[in-house]
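Wait, can you check?
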Amino acid sequence: MPILTDTYTLANGVQIPKIGFGTWQVPDGQITYDAVRAALDAGYRHIDSARGYGNEESVGKAVRDSGIPRSEIFVTTKLPADVKGFDAAKASFATSTGLLDLGYVDLYLIHAPWPWEECGADYTEGNIAAWRALIEIADAGGARAIGVSNFDGPQIQSLIDATGVVPQANQIQYYVGHTLDDVVAYCAANGILVEAYSPLATGELIGDARLREIADRYGKTTAQLAIRYTLQKGTLPLPKTTTPSRIVENADVDFEISAEDVALLDGFGSEK
């Protein structure tokens, strides 16, 4: 499927495959290993993990066992949301790379602007310290690109103002009816790629009758329509499933949604 070999170019020139395979909520061990192997066998070359997911070891083993050259697979992992300091960030990165056992990582992200149990709290200084660690990690070749996740424009701007370094990516929850237009506009204005996690709204969109009606016009599933929508909005979807047939289905999105139907999908949300 051509879309699996298409790429976006990050601001630093690094190529990133346009669809990633997400592993959020996939438990470490055989389930993660089998899912990642199935994704790689299906042609995916972009795997998204995180220290917070607890599955880095299985992701790394699946990548190593695949027989695919390391240089052909784009691997992302993330600094835990509660790690807010320079030394702690450096130590956490060392833990992640040890578990992955893949040498470098392709993209390293600060997972959230605050610990999950303190959503909305101000951790600006801790984030700046962690961001300085990520800059040093990238400068040393540990990560080919660095960025953030779940950050809004002002939170990103505080990092730029303090360091002069713009994140290359911002991974946010993004799907039909939940498009965080202000964040996306800020990222576009600053050359930051938006990655769309939960492009199926953790499965909620699959049974949506309104999406079904539109998807039927293209002979596609609601999942394929939802994923294609995120691509046409210029974001990078990270669909997650452990079912091999759906892993293949989620990448079969080489079709074009009409401008009229994109506008219809843009309008979803206010009435949901």
In short: The chain has a mean pLDDT of 96. The chain has ten helices and ten strands. The radius of gyration is 18 Å. The beta strands are 7-9, 15-17, 21-22, 46-48, 74-79, 105-110, 143-149, 169-173, 193-197, 236-238.
